[in-house]
């Protein structure tokens, strides 16, 4: 059974959607159906949008109250539109589509719904049932002592004012005369709008005329008394008909502080019989209940409620930065939010009162003052009202509502919006601080991980890759790193990364064609418009060539060019990479089309850039020192070994320690004079650079002395003196030096001196192994040495193996390869070439222990090949 009805029509304009939402909300709240208000408003908004925006017709909204719920009917004048019905198997569409979501929402939220057709109308209706409640559940206020009850006059006066169908006062009782000071004959016949100060408090979604036409309405406004003062009242309007069927509205009015006399209690869900209703927070009067838990949800609902409250076409909310110099767009409705989100505007935009976001402002026509509200440029909005959000006197944000028509707002709307802003400011700031705390905790974790990754490598290219991979997509959509070799060099594009790998090549090509950003050492992010401007011009040129016809060749398709333009069309910022008081590069971060960075992300990027700059400079210094070290070490190694006639020679050298090419072990083979060759293998005490220095001294001295014609013992004696001359830097040295003469009969004659070095081993063709020299004193210890050389003849097929102690002292626990182990390995090398012998010895050393070798190692194998048989 229908117990009440309310109807309204709405023109096919954008603001009708907001007006329809307000109509349904006020009607259902007046009926006491707060439980279903939110669902009804959502469904009505979608259905009216379909009618007035997508169908382009006016919309009729009818609300019907029943004992168990409410039925809302939305009719438009476009019955030809195809509407999928329930049960037909047709898809209701995607919720991501711009239109067509109304029926999908009906199916999800409504108890029942359907579509009715007439020759001129199409009507979509939905039914919302009230939730079941426990029997006996009531809403009641708490019991309080009499002394705390509100104070009234000698008696509570309830003004009864009846308004006829034209909006004029037809009844004015005695209490109305007492409250407002007007006798009945002065007001009867005059419109109520002559006395009503509408509205006095926020929360009113409709005008006084619309409220009088609703079947039930309740709320606050003001009545101008006979003395000119505005008296705050709380009113309850009820639409009735007399015996002749003439409609009129009965208004019951009390002083606002006595509203409990006629105010309908808020209905809240009750889970148990007799449960007390909770106190309604003033914040929830505006924002609704339950309030969103996340900041973005809270801000979005705030702008939607603000727009509905002032019947605007759009609304926006901006939050102030920590230093209160800029405002950052955080939520919008009715505006291209994706384009404006996180855009920043200055707090003080001008010298006048309306140029500061710290004061309420009303602009009746933005066409007269273009640019007064930069956020609304190009949006079609004409009038706007903005108010500050303040907490304890500190500016925390700004809330604004705008309309497409001029002159929509006055100071009264500014007051209403300011009241709403005061109610939500503290909640918004609390949610913002909570979000900021979560972001800072996440930022700290991010920076710790970034520091660990950057500290884990000293490779320049890997550092560049890590810098880009940490920023994309966490901080930005794309990233480019420029490096500067020295103060006289121009920035060089070193690395480019985009979250979409298919965009990297196009982005790199675009950045390569434009001048790099200036290497300014000033800390902080600065905006760089170069990529967006270049991409826009490239897209424009490509589009013009495409439109010009196929006769003009196009190097790349328009699709790729436009995709690149969209990828860099948003905000681009540059952060300097400063290390050791020098700009070594720039970190460039970018967003896609019309997107902006939020302030917290820029601060995090600045922290990351400082760490990345130091890591990049450390990698540069390490690379430079490694290059110097490797160059010096390579200078200590002998050049390419000469070819010795009728003798196979193979050398294997391994320096201990990461990054070392030369250690304390060394070898050499060089021509002395016609037909004679010198060879050496030695071991300086210790490893690393200090040992390598003595290595270089020994190798160069050996070559010089041997070519001067000195014998083997004389060469070593003079080398011993040179080592001792090094003083504290000297180190003792074991050395095997020899001279080799290939013979015409296929053999080879050697003269060797073994100064403290592991003895050379001779492998004969029959598999026997014997030492080829006797041990003598090592070098670098005693001043006077008496050394002698020994003659060795290698027959065809014989092998001479010379090694350093890194081979014989190879250990596994308490076991050591030793001289005997080396002999065993060499015994099995009969018939092998010199290269095969050296490789087998190395393999035996590596397999002897699982751990890598900790000492330098050199292996020199010489073999006299057997004559080839015909």
UniProtKB/TrEMBL annotation:
Pfam families: GAF (PF01590), GAF_3 (PF13492), HATPase_c_2 (PF13581), PAS (PF00989), SpoIIE (PF07228). The keyword Membrane does not apply. The keyword RNA-binding does not apply. InterPro entries: Bact_Sigma-Reg, GAF, GAF-like_dom_sf, HATPase_C_sf, HATPase_dom, PAS, PAS-like_dom_sf, PAS_fold. Keywords: Hydrolase. Residues 154-190 form the PAS domain. NCBIfam families: sensory_box. This is PAS domain-containing protein.
């Amino acid at each position: 059974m229908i117990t009440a009805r309310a109807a309204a029509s709405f023109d096919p304009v954008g603001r009708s959607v907001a007006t329809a939402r307000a109509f349904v909300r006020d009607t259902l709240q007046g009926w006491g159906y707060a439980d279903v208000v939110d669902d009804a408003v959502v469904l009505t908004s979608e259905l009216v949008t379909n009618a007035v925006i997508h169908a382009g017709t006016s919309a009729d909204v009818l609300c019907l109250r029943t004992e168990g719920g409410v039925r809302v009917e939305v009719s438009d004048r476009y019955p030809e539109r195809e509407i999928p019905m329930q049960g037909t198997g047709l898809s209701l569409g995607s919720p991501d589509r711009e239109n067509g979501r109304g029926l999908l929402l009906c199916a999800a939220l409504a108890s029942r719904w359907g579509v009715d057709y007439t020759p001129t109308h199409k009507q979509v209706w939905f039914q919302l049932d009230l939730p079941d409640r426990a029997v006996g559940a009531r809403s009641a206020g708490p019991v309080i002592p009499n002394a705390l009850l509100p104070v009234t006059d000698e008696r509570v006066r309830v003004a009864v004012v009846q308004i006829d169908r034209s909006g004029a006062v037809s009844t004015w009782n005695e209490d109305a005369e007492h409250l407002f000071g007007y006798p009945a004959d002065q007001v009867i016949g005059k419109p109520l709008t002559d006395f009503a100060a509408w509205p006095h408090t926020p929360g009113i979604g409709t005008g006084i005329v619309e409220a009088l036409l609703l079947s039930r309405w309740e709320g606050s406004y003001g009545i101008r008394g006979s003395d000119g003062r505005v008296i705050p009242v709380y009113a309850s309007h009820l639409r009735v008909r007399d015996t002749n069927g003439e409609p009129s509205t009965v208004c019951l009015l009390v002083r606002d502080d006595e509203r409990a006399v006629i105010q309908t209690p808020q209905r809240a869900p009750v889970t148990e019989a007799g449960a007390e209703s909770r106190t309604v927070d003033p914040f929830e009067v505006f924002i609704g209940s339950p309030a969103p838990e996340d900041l973005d949800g809270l801000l979005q609902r705030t702008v939607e409620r603000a727009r509905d409250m002032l019947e605007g076409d759009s609304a926006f909310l901006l939050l102030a930065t920590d230093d209160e110099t800029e405002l950052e767009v955080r939520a919008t409705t009715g505006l291209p939010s994706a384009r404006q989100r996180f855009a920043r505007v200055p707090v003080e935009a001008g010298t006048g009162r309306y140029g500061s976001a710290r004061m309420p402002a009303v602009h009746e026509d933005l066409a007269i003052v273009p640019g007064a509200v930069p956020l609304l440029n190009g949006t079609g909005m004409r009038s706007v009202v903005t108010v500050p959000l303040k907490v304890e006197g500190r500016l925390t944000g700004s809330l604004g509502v705008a309309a497409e028509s001029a002159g929509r707002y006055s100071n009264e709307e500014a007051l209403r919006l300011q009241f709403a802003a005061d109610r939500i400011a503290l909640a918004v700031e609390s949610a913002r601080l909570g979000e900021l705390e979560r972001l800072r905790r996440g930022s700290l974790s991010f920076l710790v991980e970034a520091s660990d990754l950057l500290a884990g490598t000293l490779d320049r290219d890997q550092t560049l890759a890590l810098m880009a991979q940490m920023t994309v997509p966490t901080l930005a959509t794309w990233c480019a790193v420029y490096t500067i070799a020295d103060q006289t060099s121009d920035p060089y594009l070193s690395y480019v990364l985009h979250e979409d790998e298919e965009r990297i090549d196009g982005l790199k090509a675009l950045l390569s064609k434009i001048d790099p950003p200036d290497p300014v050492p000033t800390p902080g992010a600065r905006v760089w418009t170069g990529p967006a401007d270049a991409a826009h011009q490239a897209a424009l040129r490509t589009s013009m060539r495409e439109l010009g016809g196929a006769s003009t060749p196009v190097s790349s398709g328009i699709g790729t060019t436009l995709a690149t333009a969209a990828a860099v069309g948003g905000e681009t910022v540059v952060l300097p990479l400063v290390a050791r008081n020098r700009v070594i590069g720039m970190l460039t971060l970018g967003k896609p089309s019309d997107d902006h960075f939020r302030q917290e992300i820029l601060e995090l990027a600045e922290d990351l850039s400082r760490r990345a700059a130091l890591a990049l400079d450390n990698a540069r210094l390490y690379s430079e020192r490694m290059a110097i070290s490797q160059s010096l070490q390579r200078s200590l190694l002998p050049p390419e070994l000469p070819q010795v006639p009728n003798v196979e020679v193979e050398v294997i050298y391994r320096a201990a320690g990461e990054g070392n090419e030369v250690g304390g072990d060394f070898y050499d083979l060089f021509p002395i004079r016609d037909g004679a060759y010198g060879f050496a293998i030695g071991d300086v005490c210790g490893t690393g650079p200090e040992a390598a220095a003595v290595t270089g001294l020994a190798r160069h001295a050996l070559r010089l002395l041997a070519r001067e014609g000195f014998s083997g013992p004389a060469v070593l004696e003079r080398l011993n003196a040179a080592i001792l001359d090094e003083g504290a830097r000297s180190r003792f040295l074991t050395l095997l030096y020899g001279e080799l003469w290939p013979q015409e009969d296929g053999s080879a004659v050697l003269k060797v001196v073994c100064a403290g070095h592991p003895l050379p081993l001779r492998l004969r063709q029959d598999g026997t192994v014997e030492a080829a020299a006797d041990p003598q004193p090592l070098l670098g210890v005693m001043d006077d040495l008496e050394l002698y050389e020994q003659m060795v003849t290698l027959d065809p097929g014989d092998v001479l193996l010379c090694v350093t102690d890194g081979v014989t002292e190879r250990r596994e626990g308490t076991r050591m390869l030793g001289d005997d182990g080396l002999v065993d390995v060499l015994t099995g090398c009969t018939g092998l070439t010199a290269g095969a012998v050296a490789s087998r010895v190395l393999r035996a050393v590596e397999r002897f222990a699982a751990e890598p070798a900790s000492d330098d190692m050199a292996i020199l194998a010489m073999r006299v090949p057997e004559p080839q048989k015909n």
